Predict the structure.
Amino acid sequence: MSRYWLPKGLRSWRGIFFTALTASIVAVVTVSIVSFPSLVEAKKNKLRTEVKPGELDDYYVFESGGHSGEIRVLGVPSMRLLKRIPVFNIDSASGWGITDKSKAMLGGLMVGDTHHVHGSYKDGTYDGKYVWVNDKANSRVARIRLDVMETDSIIKIPHAQGAHGIFPQRYPQTDWVVINSEFRTPLENNGKGNFEDASTYEGVHTIIDAHTMKIVCQIQVPCNLDLAATDYQGKYSFATSYNSEGGATISQMLAKDRDWLVVFNWDAIKAALKKGSYKVVDGVKMIDGHAGTGIAIYIPIPKNPHGVNISPDGKYAVASGKVSPTASVIAIDKLADAFAGKIQPKDCIVAEPQIGLGPLHTTFDGRGNAYTSLFIDSQIVKWNIQKAIDLYQHPKEGGTAVVDRLDIHYQVGHTMASMAETKDADGKFLISLNKISKDRFLNVGPFKPDNDQLVDISGKKMKLILDEPAYAEPHDCIIVRRDLVEPHVKQRFDMDANPDAVHKNSIERNGNHVTVRLTANAPVYGMQDVEVNQGDEVTFIVTNQDEIPDLSHGFCISDYGINFVIAPFQTKKVTFTADKPGIYWIYCTNFCHALHLEMRLRFLVKAKA
Amino acid sequence: MSRYWLPKGLRSWRGIFFTALTASIVAVVTVSIVSFPSLVEAKKNKLRTEVKPGELDDYYVFESGGHSGEIRVLGVPSMRLLKRIPVFNIDSASGWGITDKSKAMLGGLMVGDTHHVHGSYKDGTYDGKYVWVNDKANSRVARIRLDVMETDSIIKIPHAQGAHGIFPQRYPQTDWVVINSEFRTPLENNGKGNFEDASTYEGVHTIIDAHTMKIVCQIQVPCNLDLAATDYQGKYSFATSYNSEGGATISQMLAKDRDWLVVFNWDAIKAALKKGSYKVVDGVKMIDGHAGTGIAIYIPIPKNPHGVNISPDGKYAVASGKVSPTASVIAIDKLADAFAGKIQPKDCIVAEPQIGLGPLHTTFDGRGNAYTSLFIDSQIVKWNIQKAIDLYQHPKEGGTAVVDRLDIHYQVGHTMASMAETKDADGKFLISLNKISKDRFLNVGPFKPDNDQLVDISGKKMKLILDEPAYAEPHDCIIVRRDLVEPHVKQRFDMDANPDAVHKNSIERNGNHVTVRLTANAPVYGMQDVEVNQGDEVTFIVTNQDEIPDLSHGFCISDYGINFVIAPFQTKKVTFTADKPGIYWIYCTNFCHALHLEMRLRFLVKAKA
């Protein structure tokens, strides 16, 4: 057979060799690209999106658990749930709401509705010390210590219902935390009015001292206040207001085309506090924040706005329309002129890009792009802020600031990019907190999980990495670089920081009150028999004396409805009435040792004679 | 240059061509194997170990949540947490412990300690209808409906403390459920004794009617009872007993070298019930199960045994030594002779392989291998049952039944393979529920997550696939094929199965009791104003009329500590005293619509005159 029917390159063995070599290389590359696109993509993005067994995550996520009342700690990129921190809920495992201290903090309430969780700041980025979270259900704010990841303090916000948007001061550090009341009520809510009074209801923007967890003051406004934000200069706080109508029914609340972004002037607030320009209501300094007072301005933005977020460069506040397909971009450097009356509040708006249906919250990549959640479209839309500003100044037929869209599954509420609420936004990951998961997971009955989706935003196009089901109802989150938190996190408690710490086992009787001080060392409690009399008020104080990291003990009194966990060097206390006579085994509920089952003691409640 | 320094195969272009071609093929294969070993391995095992976004899992996992008091539903192989089912705990999101029905079921208790969860059976495999779970803290048993994945019934086990091992009847179907009491107490636990009475304490093996959730009878035994199992013929139930000493302190409990596997004879129990051979204690039929009664036999097995599990072929019960490095294999077909007195109980033991330190629980692959968790060694050890039996009959120097060992991280308690508690054990996946995670996850403070590790057992060697952190404290689980559960699971409730279902909104007053019937349809409740008087007892009955799958509503009364979720077509009811006057906004806590925030109504509690 003549070989001259072959292409020229194959007419000699030398040609065949080079062709084969080239073909082989092409084949290897093609096989790699076709079979393993994710690998190639990941290399292109230089972003680690997988966490293998034994590897650690790159980010902590602090997620508000919605009406589960808790905070959750996740890892990114694995999206694994690393911890639940009970806050406003009752937690059988840790004994939250069961121990004396936690019970006192909760004050008899057993439900909460956490919405927004934000960390403490220094110079515009996280300092790794605390996070704060609101309870919309009962208008409370909690502070969580990040060194031990436990709730540290809970306070009630007076004159507020639906305490909702919360934000700590970002600069120079977190001295104040602000929180909005979403539901307007009579300021004196005494049940003496009627349903016709709605137009007289007020809202409050509350300032809390971040260190003492006391109320600094409240700013009284005529409208409801929704999401909150603070700027990067320590000058302003922000609140959206979706009910400028002052309505009480849904149709009333939807009447107007524009509602407000309310901006609070911190210098003016400090001056008012100094001058005494406030009234005192139930012991709280109440400052008038109505239009014209210089305390707040009301920027009209389209319709029933929801989220407000500040760009990491500190230049813009972005508020979204909810029932308008737009976001509004407010230039923060124009606010001073608006407060000074040199320009109108509306003149602070520098862009209103059309981005899609049901825009709720916006997050940022630190590269000039904004990512807004679209509830109705079930999308994350990526748009360029500068382009939106340019198009607002110089509108262009068919011009759009939108860069990319990603379908999510489904009905996204909040969305957050890594470090996006700091000046160090790094544009790597984004979490889309989707309220409805429908068909994305095995059917677990009529009440289904939410879907927390992780998205790679490091490239030009957004890329969905994984679906993570979540119990009701993750509301918002922050994604914090590991190096900002981990150095602060302890392996064990500081034992003697707690004056109750038990070093010596004892039973002490004082009238009909019995105090039992007990140590726990795997696999034994410090005493194996404790006797009290029926009707005694009994306090157990238990200290875990095991210093080995992760060696936690439980303390459960059978049939007495008491259980809690004690982490290494931790002390917990519980007080109850020993009203049922009998032998009740107290046992360790937290697997601690090969002889964990044998770690128990007898609690004898002697029957009344 | 002479080309004759080259190997012979490269001395012509033809040779070079074929060498290059071979090299290329080798290169492609090598690149694939080296870069993507998991892919190659997975293909080898034919086992899907990854779940991509949008894909569904192959198995449901029902996991007891330990002293969190809940049950969890996970997916395998993703290990994602698909749902929490509140059982013995208070749950702020779903309103478990808040609504009237759940509150009544919990009876004022707020903590629980779930240990063992098992499904309902038909002919030795799951029928997908129910799971049962124990509460060790307060000696209760709960039944969970799998069609809606909610707790259906909770009962208290009388005369029991530390209600621990639980198992449903496997054949011909689940008519009975057995549960063991781990803590021995005086049968009449009235607080009239003292600490010296320990030797008189008793334990009970309780039989529950699976359909009515009533106590059938209790078998009184002189020892404590730990884990439970039932056979595959409906003839026997099993309990380990680690305290044959009858001790009350840890040193007493460790005195003897052998404790017991107790076997209960169901035919004998049925005969005793029929003959009336029982005493009635507090209304419960109490059958004497002491040695010699024919009700139970006591097989001596090494030391402080913990788990007992039945091989999927129904032939063997395997109990592990906990503080002995052995497992004991009991031939179930010898039990009849032991009960008949033809052989000694100890003669039922057919193997006692040495497997490692701290053996706790055993699971099976359906191919004749057992996998035992080793708490002290932090390993799963795979061993062959037949080989263990052969070596017991014909001991061989250096002989071992052990086939493979896998290090886990760390301190494993329960372990379970897919479908391993049924005759359909499929030997694909194994979960190792590790109590201590130490360094495997980002540090989240002194109280760390457990580590649920997923292992591929489809091949000869076990292979660790992933680490999944878990909140305190997953105790045990079953891994159930998707096709056995999913067809039973509903998208919505059967609305009118609940006689309270609201079709018409109304407010009805009866003295000082007010009943409010309310519908919820996104984004509005059926009424926007509800007025009561201070001091009224108020019942809200709320029905979710949205039939769209996954469209759940919340119902939260601000400042009244009330919240619950209502899934599609579900009805929930809550009763409370309206003791605080004022306007209290009731709002939807479960994100349902673009106007979810506007879904609220005013609840006016008129002040007393």
Remarks:
- Chain A touches chain B through 165 residues (CB under 8 Å).
- Residues 187 and 350 of chain A are 35 Å apart (CA to CA).
- Chain A has eight helices and 40 strands.
- Residues 1-7, 28-43 of chain A have pLDDT under 50 and may be disordered.
